[in-house]
Amino acid sequence: MARPPYLAELRPTLTLAAPIVIGQVSQMLMGVTDSAMIGHAGTVPLAASAFGSNIFNIFYVFGIGLMIPVSIFVARARGAQRPEEAAEYLRHGLTAALVAGAAEMLVMAALATQLHRFGQPPEVLAIVTPFYLLFAASIAPVLVYLVLRQYAEAMGHPWVPMFIMLGGVGLNALLNWVFIYGHLGVPALGLTGAGISTLTSRTLGALVIFLWLRRYPAVRESWPRHWWGGYSAARFREMLHVGAPAGGMLLFEVTAFAFSGIMIGWLGAVPLAAHQIAMTCASFAFMFPLGLSTAAGMRVSHAVGAGERGRLRPIAFGAIGLGLAVMTFFAVAFAVGGRMIASWFVPDPAVIALAAQLLIVAAVFQLADGVQVIAAAVLRGVTDVRLPAVITLIAYWVIALPLGYGLGISGPLGAAGVWVGIAGGLAFAAIFLTVRFARLTR
After folding, report:
1. What is the mean pLDDT of the chain?
2. What's the Cα-to-Cα distance from 45 to each of 6, 49, 174, 178, 279, rounded to whole Å?
3. Is the pTM of this model over 0.85?
């Protein structure tokens, strides 16, 4: 007896998603490692890392959106059995990553002179700039790595990128031990040491994955014959048509989260440190549906390229159902074990108590977060990006931030109120993005 189409499509999605999820989790573990190791250096360094990371993430996530067309169009070219097109999308994507990375680094460097305008505690501003500038320098290497990883995954080879990511996590932890605390004859650099570790790990990761792909026989037919010159303006426009709205969607989300962190910073260093802990935990859980969304989006793109539109709904809704199941597990873990989890990051009782409260709110919005990221990815897979960008703008800047400000800054709930606002925006996005995909694929 033939299996139902939703179950039939779930297994290949899981097969592709498993190494992507592990790779995403390992990437997130780099941030978890930073937070834990910086937290043991003090509450103020942890708060400063939260502030600097929030600003960096605005640029990073927009860069991710700009690079998303690489996975979509490479997967579509593979589905249509056109290896030369896959090579061209990789070549154009890497050029875009270098240009966008250089531009974003310059903007972040200029912004470093204006960090005082964000109203953060003086003790945070006193130490954040070197860490922030080192993160800014890592934007180009991390975007190059992202393009190469997406290319490998879209070509059906996700395992080696996963191991490279895991190696990066281990290297980052080792370098943190050396540079943050001062070992092997290196002076203790505290927060600045964490920035050095991250820049080094990201740069080496980009170099290693490029050298692997260059020598990997399975992608030889789809590997560019040359890198510079002979660019197609039409191809760049095609990628920008998808990448700009996708970047906008991610930018609306990350700026909402970043500005939420800035608002919480107005409440003091303790709430900001608690926010960083809770956000790190929520972001770790988010890596699981994010990996599923990447796999589902690529498989939807592949099905479009192969002309098999009947597979779109089974691929998408199977992934959404699995994402809900995974995020239910994390919601329960955060609700039950929030205080214990927070104590792993920092010994300060006030920070632990507040972080545990925020993790209870995070337990609620985990479900919506998992659904919205998968729905957005499968919409990108069918190159529907403009209306989803509007939905995302409303979710975060019309609902999440005003609600969070009203409840947490003007109202009595403090940091927890800001997080309730985020939960409201995520719920709106989850519902309307899913409905949009369902209507497009009827």
Report:
1. 88
2. 48, 6, 19, 17, 16
3. no
